[in-house]
Amino acid sequence: MVIIMIKELNKYKGLSRRKIFIILLVICIISFIFGILFLALLDKNGKSIVVSTINNYINNLNYNKKDLFLLFKNNVLITIIMFLFGVSLFGVIFEILFLIAKSFVLGFSISSFIYTFKVKGILIGLIYLFPNIFNLFIYFILGFFALNYSIYLYKYLFKNKEYNLKSLMKKYLKVLGVSIILLSLSSLIQYFIIPYILKLFTNS
To answer: How many Cβ atoms sit within 10 Å of the Cβ of residue 145?
Structure first.
């Protein structure tokens, strides 16, 4: 499924495709780094809350499992919202802000696990956050397609450029379908596998 998304990305001849991809990637990386550094800006009380929250989660893994349907619904809902915003001109702002927020939270979460569990926190954090990292990749690709499509739409409506928007929409819908399937898989992993693996590493 991931290979299909990458193939579609390679076939997608968007305007300044490489430039848009790099800009989005840089935005995500910078947001991720800010998220990592944000923990250092917290005072002692703030850091204590972070440590307490993570320890409480780890110590109560059996009771913290989210409802599978809720996980699936949230992932699919976000994907559909991103898709709908992507076919509008002004929704691109939401797409970018969403990627910024997701990247920042991911960076902050990783640094929080490392701060709480030291070196061991790198592995624990990566295990716990694997579905989030996987989801962010999917959202990134979807956001890239959305931004590209919005540029086409803008030039088609206001610059009198001729583009095959129907063909672009078909590719966009294909990416949406693959995204929903992958996010469903991510929900299953987050619900059934991640808590079990976390118990193995945190109890050792």
So the answer is: 27
